[in-house]
Input
Amino acid sequence: MEKAIIVYGSNTGNTETLAGALAEELQSRFEVNVQNVADITPDDIMAYDLILLGSSTWDDGELQEDFQDFYEEMDRLDLSGKKVAVFGPGDSSWEDYCRAVDLLEEKSRELKADIIAPGFKWDGDIDEEAIAEIKKWASKLH
Ligand SMILES: Cc1cc2nc3c(=O)[nH]c(=O)nc-3n(C[C@H](O)[C@H](O)[C@H](O)COP(=O)(O)O)c2cc1C
Output
């Protein structure tokens, strides 16, 4: 079975909830590991076939704070041959809506990853609809 890692950074638990829903959807097809970005380094993701990166956006379009060092340290990786997709919650009343998703996608592309789906962005509360939509998104990841 292919291996997937879901790396999330979350201040109030929303990205963490999305990560959990993703894991539920993927576990029948992948051996899934869910990790808080604060607990790992970029090198740890290299053992996986599918890499899902999840960050909320804060203040002026910033990555969630635990993701900031990880993002900088990602520069040493070569993600050729790795499948990557990015997700994150945000709030469209902010100017830089879900900018963290775009930042992580751009970075992964620079590092030569194969971006296998457009980033999943969710506006507002993580309710049942959000969970259903991210599971639908995950069902298309292969
Ligand atoms: C002070 C503050 C700043 C925020 N800035 C942004 C932003 O620039 N863009 C955005 O899309 N969402 C922004 N948000 C919304 C959060 O990204 C959103 O609440 C998200 O669900 C938090 O996820 P987390 O609990 O996983 O950290 C902001 C929220 C707060 C409280």
About this structure: The radius of gyration is 14 Å. The chain has a mean pLDDT of 98. The first strand starts at residue 2 and ends at 9.
